[in-house]
Amino acid sequence: MNLWQKIKTSLATTRQGLTQKIDRIFKDRGKITQTLLDELEEVLIMADLGVSATQKIIGHLQEKIRTNEVKDSEEVKDFIKTLIAQILEKNEIEESHKWQPPHVIMVIGVNGVGKTTTIGKLAWRLKKEGKKVLLAAGDTFRAAAIDQLEIWAQKIGVDFIKHQPGADPSAVVFDAIQAGKARGYDIIIADTAGRQHTKANLMEELKKMKRVIGKVIPDAPHEVLLVLDANTGQNALSQTNLFHQNLGVTGIVLTKLDGSAKGGIIVNIADTFDIPIKYIGLGEELDNLQEFHPALFASALLTD
Ligand SMILES: Nc1nc2c(ncn2[C@@H]2O[C@H](COP(=O)(O)OP(=O)(O)OP(=O)(O)O)[C@@H](O)[C@H]2O)c(=O)[nH]1
Ligand SMILES: [Mg+2]
To answer: pTM, whole model, 2 decimals?
Structure first.
């Protein structure tokens, strides 16, 4: 399966919610009326795109209809595709590959969203690119979290730094960064614990980890990746808000898009925040982490 087919298959449920409903609205209707636009607005909101992005889309659409540039359901879908791609593209940044190794990535998010799995997939990708990768077991909170990351490290064949369960996660990342510097690693990826984001002590723990990393390498961590579960829906917005306020998120990974009916939330996130979406998770296997391509995604979202 190529990337396009993979994304299309993963978005099947979300897509059905959009495309089929849009087609149904247009069925047996001669022209585009205000009632029809109201129904379309509802479909976009139900698909988790958010009020603001939906209003932008409907506003632009009204203009195109007025000037007769958009006349039927196919043209409406094409136009919405373009607008969604624009929203998804607005935060994209030119990636500079001039890393000063070790490049440090901290992976954060609430429990169960897919942080540790994402680290495994990312480490696998980077190793395939020829990078020397070190993983830091910064989740000392959940029983078995250290073992889970160690298993990934062994499977992929990358190095791994751990302390005992219950140890201070800042001490783990401190050791990892020291080792990373001393032993010439290209990339260090730190796993972190996930509790409910509303728990203040998690934020304090993560902030401390970030400070400690910065003490060893002044401009590190170079990336703070926030992992969000595509099935979460609107709650992903409050998670993003809080993590961003506390830790300055540099990129988002949206996991579990395979089978999710709420993939539309990605448009809402891109519209609401100035944070680029970097990767999407399309399954549990190592090769199921994909770089995010806005136009491809928008297209897959609205294809029959
Ligand atoms: N279908 C699917 N499952 C995924 C994806 N990413 C992660 N998972 C699954 O989600 C579950 C939780 O993943 P973890 O990586 O342990 O999540 P975590 O955020 O590290 O969880 P905590 O350490 O408890 O905070 C696991 O069963 C993963 O296999 C994905 O893209 N698609
Ligand atoms: Mg984990």
So the answer is: 0.95
